[in-house]
Amino acid sequence: MTLQIRNLSIAYGQTQVISQINLTLHPSRTTGLIGRSGCGKSTLAKAMTGIIQAPQDTLFLNDEHFLPNPAQTGNTVHYMWQDPMASLSPFLNALDLISEPLKAIHKMPKKARQQRAHELLNMVELDPTCAAKRPHQLSGGQCQRIALARALAVKPQFLVLDEPLSALDLVTQEQVTSLLRKVRTEMHMGILIISHDLQTLAKLADDIAVMDGGRIVEHKKTQEFFAAPKFPVSQRFVEISKYSHMEHSN
Ligand SMILES: Nc1ncnc2c1ncn2[C@@H]1O[C@H](COP(=O)(O)OP(=O)(O)OP(=O)(O)O)[C@@H](O)[C@H]1O
């Protein structure tokens, strides 16, 4: 199963935000998406996942037309929001937040749901004491893990993560990075990760796409990208990532 984006353009009112995007996601592969703030990365992710409507004939699953609707097709393409705290209902505890998609999408009975929710809590390495806590009683990093456990509960074929590590300290970032690698392999998901942090993408992504001014200007295998970034914006990202890596290792 592949998810193909063909010639996708999106405008907000009169303002064109993304133009003629072509991109294909494959199972068990991770694509990293970088680009300057405001270049249209989240807009692309939201269009792929049905949060904003993509024009007809731009999204395809295995060459078949596909119109994502998060309410119905959450298990095909799932979007994990940039701000986990804001995307989680403040009225539910961690366990209920994780078991909600198991009920809504997979119609799992209560006992099986609770058991799976505990397994997922464990998988994202959240302390069991977090199970009964609501988002405002948890840290940003813990909320990010709940959002990830929820995404795994949905068991989508494709997972789109918008800045999944931004609220985490370096140690937790490392843990979530290895968790995402495990998920890709064990659950055979195709993953798109939006990040400003090329060092993280270097560890996670099989290939890297660069957006600039609403277009994908470069898309290469990760090693090739680091060896020879072609466009000025790509070169700048590689330069900055080397510099920040040196700072962290000093
Ligand atoms: N709902 C909306 N209505 C109108 N304009 C919007 C809307 N959402 C985003 N925009 C604008 O579209 C452009 C692209 O925004 P988008 O969030 O896709 O960028 P981004 O690359 O994800 O940025 P960042 O890295 O800062 O998250 C920006 O100029 C933004 O202000």
UniProtKB/TrEMBL annotation:
CDD domains, A to Z: ABC_NikE_OppD_transporters
Transport is among the record's keywords: yes
Superkingdom, taxonomy of origin: Bacteria
Transmembrane parts of this sequence: none
Organism of origin: Pseudovibrio japonicus
Domain ABC transporter: 3-238
Protein name per its UniProtKB record: ABC transporter domain-containing protein
InterPro entries: AAA+_ATPase, ABC_transp_ATP-bind, ABC_transporter-like_ATP-bd, ABC_transporter-like_CS, P-loop_NTPase
Similarity comment text for this entry: Belongs to the ABC transporter superfamily.
Keywords: ATP-binding, Nucleotide-binding, Transport
Keyword Transmembrane belongs to the record: no
